[in-house]
User: Fold this.
Amino acid sequence: MRLQNQCFNEIEVGDSVHLQHIVTQRDIQLFATVAGDFNPMHLEAAFANHAGYSGATISSMWLGAQISGLLGSQLPGPGTVYVGQNLQFQAVAILGDTLDISITAQEKIAEGNFVHFDCLCTNQHGQTVMTGSVKVIAPTEKISINQPEVGLVSVQTHDAFERLLERCKSLPAITVAVAHPCDEASLTSVIDAFLRGLIVPILVGPEVKIRALAAQCELDISTLKIENTAHSHAAARRAVELVERGDAAILMKGSLHTDELMSAVFDSGLRTERRISHVFIMDVPTYHKPLFVTDAAINIVPDLMAKCDICQNAIDLAHVLGIPNPKVAILSAVETVNPKIASTVDAASLCKMADRGQITGGILDGPLALDNAISYESARIKNIVSAVAGDADILLVPDLVTGNVLAKQLSFMNNADAAGIVLGARVPIVLSSRADNARAKLASCAVACLLANSMLDSTAISIASPHAK
Assistant:
């Protein structure tokens, strides 16, 4: 991008520039980090709501920074020296607001090359947020340069899972049948969840192998029950049997293959009339709230009715986790219905099914491309008017490959953590990956415990982000 200034003698009274910007969580977090302003009014939606606002607020001085940006980059531009300001703030800017910020040359003083600018900021409702004036020394030399490169700055926080674990502290530990915990990662995660008081595990698998592994990893399993089986297939069947007869309220995958465990589930009495599906609950540092991705592990190419159940499963999970009316973005490659792209037709059908009460408890919109689903700015540019666009809680993907690639991209390229849970059976099924870190595996157990407790007493425990709009 080329930057070109306007010298003092080129500026006319009345010259004006402006910018339009949608306030994002990243704006709030970046400014807090740079300024050291950790006022919970800006960072905790619940705190701001209690103070009478409709969401997290942005620091008023962030607006001052935008004024500085206009002056230094556009008018007068490169070479400008900012010497004074007098700003008044009539209203508070809220996360998600669309702000129009402008500066207008009001007076020139030849001695010293001073220019006074009037400043104005309004929101999408036409309400005045800020007025004021600034004083600068305008450059006298013409400058035209390429925009200097600056380092890419991102805000990365992992707090959704911590809140989830915090909510579990008041709940009783749930008995879990763990199928074949015969590698270090699976056994360690089980013991970690046990020591935190989340679960009481029953270890199902070759007893000699499990005890040897525990000794090797210096894990104390002396108080835990072990159900001895010959191999992983038998472990899967036995773990399912323990759940069927009520000895455990949660089924958990150990080091066996997913299809081994799920085959035992499909052949058991754990099936319900609802389609079984998988949900990744993702803590994405660059997104403003927990993000569900479904289905990325069970249903390979689901048809319309399977997607209906997949959607309802995810909505029901969101309710348990304290999201009362989750926003579901039904993904495709485009945001318009095209008969040549089957996923767009399915998306439109699912939305109409929700209108007719065949899917309940959420707000559906689709088809939406991924950028529209998670970016206010992208949706605005494409003129998409939607309660879901830019603020999705649930991403309903067209097929397993798409969902799996998306979830792994978020994990390995966006530093997201992903808890995994299988829904639609009579009990929660913890289905984590060997590549998951300890935090994600612990969060998977916590989600399952919250689900199991909700099945017992219908108590919904909230992990909804305090930053969610």
Q: What stands out?
A: Residues 459-469 have pLDDT under 50 and may be disordered. The CA atoms of residues 66 and 101 lie 8 Å apart.
